[in-house]
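Re: your question about Prephenate dehydrogenase

S., sorry for the slow reply, the queue was backed up all week. Below is exactly what I fed in.
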Amino acid sequence: METLKGKTVSFIGLGLMGGALAMGIRKQGPDKICAFDINEEVLEDALRKEVIDWGVSEPEGIRQILGVSDLVVICLYPQLALDFILEYMEDFKENAVITDITGVKKLLVDQLRGVLREDLDLILGHPMAGSEKEGFGNADDAIFKDRNYILVPQPENKPENLAFIKEIIRNLGFVNIVETTAEVHDQKIAFTSQLCHVIASALVDSEEDLHITDYEGGSFGDLTRIAMINAGMWTELFICNKEALVDQIEKFEKSMDTMKKMIQAEDSDGLTEILSNVRKKRITMEVDRQNKTSARTQKA
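Result:
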């Protein structure tokens, strides 16, 4: 892996995802890995595990690592990521490549349009991987294997830098790289990610029996694992993408209401038809995913 040879990479935020990405990029042989995190114990742990070479927790340290970094990976909540770029705009190394992992994109595109330093190349990205666990202590780059990665290229992105980021992504274990617009990203993620977390959270919220798992056979656990949620992060994601998310919630409510009425009316034929169609749809979705994964794995 020669992509990162001689390069310095910095991570802004060393939580679960920042830590996992740093672990994966360490295997790609960069010259140096730096990190900023407000938690000095996290930095000490990352240094001890040789995930990073240099850790900082103060603004002056941020300026120092940005000044030497060829690639900066921002692993912060959306508003914090935006604020970070704006605050430290003049501190990035000349011609640095910047990428992010935030779960909404239109906010960044709208707020940074026309204000980003001309020599910097911001390539927006979203790794579709994660865990219900939190923090650097639970970071593991194995979560990226055979997952999707979404990129939101902008007209000003340099082709060579986009190719550079894609090569890093593939070397991390991702097999399907999707390129789309900020608007489409936020619409799709409202369904595949945010709505799922809303449903899981609402399901758990609807039950008061804390011993209900005595009666489950796996379905409840599978459906609600993601309800062990990072409340602050997901609150921000939900609100940042409220229009697209509310639209998806309303579609879900409509589907739920249809099935509720069929159950109340004992409409066996209607319910059987819906469930049969749902099964076919889900199988088609899964076959499509497997085919894409297989094709890209063989190509690699």
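Residues 25 and 172 are 7 Å apart (CA to CA). The mean pLDDT is 94.

Happy to talk it through on Thursday.
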